């Protein structure tokens, strides 16, 4: 059944048991919405030098958007910024592939659980759900960095 | 098993008119189209007219003396006659073609923005809408309020999905210039009590605008009986093509109110210093209009009339009653909106436990069932009921009890999948 390619067990597991959910202290906070469907996320980033110390979030939305935020937390917290950015860019590339990218071992090594979202990239209406938290993270990180400079 | 309900149309015959309903999706699943509040499907009778228009009669309208120009003009203006008759307009000149209901509502808001007394909306006046409006009947009034300084007020909703008119005398006051509300809600399905609102609006001399987008396709629409000043609706929800909408307005208002869009077709004479305007409806139809689309809407109106709007309303009432009953059998399902079929249209919104509507819609789609998920361009309604979004099934003249059953089975799959 094709649905299983979208709703991988990994995704459903993250949806039912999200990692790092809830808002904690952060250096910057953003609120992103998906206006077509009403998915929302409030996300905070806390940096420690060049390390992603915490990504906390609160939001409402479908299983894909919620699971994606959970995977993001699991993947990015503790990474240094360069590596976190590389993961974000790789995830973006996968999600924008319209299902044409067959993830290889190298990609799987970078994305870990996030590789499960490969199937979602075949559903244009759902790509935005998967990307919501990742775009919010990128935005919040940029804000945290620019605020850090001016401070 | 065929389910017989009183008042059903002969859907077997009707469905033969709609080629798309024979489609199969997702490797052989029969399409169950329950997204009619978003847009209706188009019968062969309309598709043929569109095709014939472009193959045989295509020309610009109201200009040129050649045979095609005359044919195209006669067809375009003939469509206006058909629509005037369909809504019982006192005059064909009161029917303005737009591109959709949003444009119709924006047109009214902008006529009032530029109007002189007694219609002028300014910082001393008030605009009234309701909390169950589609965004297309909220945002144009917010814009008008922001630009004119007028105060925007609205009717709230009761817990069972109806308008709360208990404070009607405080909402609609002597300061109210215009009251704009939806006849049938696209998200709740509620049919609103026009008479009570119109009576109060008339008491204070306010204009009444009715958004009939979800009414015109589904029930007899009589603009004289409504006693409104403006009525807006769109073609694509009533078997017509997209790109065509209608604004009906009372003749004396259309004469008094200023044009909004300027351009070709809407003028009488033009000099470099000033222009004079054509009489309504042309005053409000700047530029080349959606010609084939208007002709197509005329054909749609012919089609609906041949079946009978009373008959369509009766059919949908029976389907909706059945759907509400069956949906209430589904565990954890909560209907957002009236839970009876009385004073109710054929759009039924619901939530299913904690399962997000996106996920509901995705799993239904996999079974060939097309529903709408999200906030349905009526986000204030979702906020009012404390929900992020709903799943909405909406029915039309070709919908069958079997399709309701397919939905119920589909929802069982959804529950199992996420259970």
TrEMBL record, chain A:
All residue ranges annotated as the NIF system FeS cluster assembly NifU N-terminal domain in the record: 6-129
GO biological process: iron-sulfur cluster assembly
Gene3D superfamilies from the UniProt entry: 3.90.1010.10
Species per Swiss-Prot/TrEMBL record: Streptomyces triculaminicus
Entry GO MF terms: iron ion binding; iron-sulfur cluster binding
One Pfam match: NifU_N
Record-given protein name: SUF system NifU family Fe-S cluster assembly protein
Coiled coil: none
Lineage of producing organism: Bacteria, Bacillati, Actinomycetota, Actinomycetes, Kitasatosporales
NCBIfam families: SUF_scaf_2
């Amino acid at each position: 059944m094709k649905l299983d390619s979208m709703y991988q067990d990994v995704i459903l597991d993250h949806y039912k048991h999200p990692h790092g959910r809830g808002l904690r202290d952060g250096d910057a906070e953003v609120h992103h919405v998906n206006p077509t469907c009403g998915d929302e996320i409030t996300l905070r980033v806390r940096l420690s030098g060049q390390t992603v110390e915490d990504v906390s979030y609160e939001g409402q939305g479908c299983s894909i958007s919620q699971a994606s935020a959970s995977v993001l937390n699991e993947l990015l917290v503790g990474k240094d910024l360069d590596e976190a950015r590389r993961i974000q860019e790789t995830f973006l590339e996968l999600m924008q592939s319209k299902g044409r990218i067959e993830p290889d071992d190298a990609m799987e090594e970078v994305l870990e659980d996030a590789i499960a979202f490969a199937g979602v990239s075949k559903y244009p209406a759902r790509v935005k759900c998967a990307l919501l938290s990742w775009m919010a993270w990128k935005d919040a990180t940029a804000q945290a960095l620019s605020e850090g400079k001016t401070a | 098993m065929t389910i017989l309900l009183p008042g059903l149309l002969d859907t077997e015959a009707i469905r033969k008119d709609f080629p798309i309903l024979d489609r199969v999706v997702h490797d052989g699943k029969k399409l169950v189209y329950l997204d009619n509040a978003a847009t209706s499907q188009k019968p062969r009778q309309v598709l043929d007219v569109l095709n014939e228009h472009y193959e045989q009669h295509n020309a610009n309208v109201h200009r040129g003396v050649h045979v095609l120009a005359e044919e195209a003009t006669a067809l375009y203006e003939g469509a206006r006659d058909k629509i005037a008759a369909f809504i019982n307009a006192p005059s064909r000149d009161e029917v303005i073609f737009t591109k959709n209901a949003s444009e119709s509502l924006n047109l009214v808001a902008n006529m009032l923005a530029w109007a002189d007394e007694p219609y002028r909306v300014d910082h001393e006046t008030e605009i009234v809408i309701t909390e169950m409006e589609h965004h297309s009947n909220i945002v144009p009034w917010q814009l008008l309020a922001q630009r004119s300084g007028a105060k925007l007020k609205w009717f709230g909703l009761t817990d069972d999905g109806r308008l709360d008119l208990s404070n009607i005398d405080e909402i609609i006051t002597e300061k109210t210039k215009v009251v704009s509300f939806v006849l049938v809600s696209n998200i709740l399905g509620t049919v609103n009590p026009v008479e009570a609102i119109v009576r109060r609006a008339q008491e204070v001399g306010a204009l009444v605008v009715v958004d009939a987008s979800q009414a015109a396709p589904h029930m007899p629409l009589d603009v004289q009986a409504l006693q409104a000043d403006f009525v807006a609706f769109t073609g694509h929800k009533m078997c017509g093509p997209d790109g065509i909408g209608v604004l009906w307005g009372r003749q004396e208002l259309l004469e008094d109110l200023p044009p909004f869009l300027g351009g070709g077709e809407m003028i009488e004479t033009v000099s470099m210093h000033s222009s004079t305007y054509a009489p309504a409806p042309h005053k409000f139809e700047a530029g080349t209009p959606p010609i084939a689309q208007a002709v197509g809407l005329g054909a749609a109106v012919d089609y609906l009339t041949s079946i009978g709007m009373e008959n369509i309303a009766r059919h949908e009432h029976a389907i909706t009653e059945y759907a509400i009953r069956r949906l209430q059998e589904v565990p954890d399902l909560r209907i957002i909106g009236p839970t009876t079929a009385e004073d109710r249209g054929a759009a039924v919104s619901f939530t299913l436990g904690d399962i997000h509507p996106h996920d509901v819609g995705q799993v239904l789609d996999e079974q060939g069932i097309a529903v709408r998920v999200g906030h349905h361009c009526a986000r204030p309604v979702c906020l009012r009921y404390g929900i992020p979004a709903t799943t909405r099934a909406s029915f039309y003249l070709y919908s069958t009890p079997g399709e309701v059953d397919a939905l119920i089975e589909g929802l069982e799959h959804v529950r199992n999948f996420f259970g």
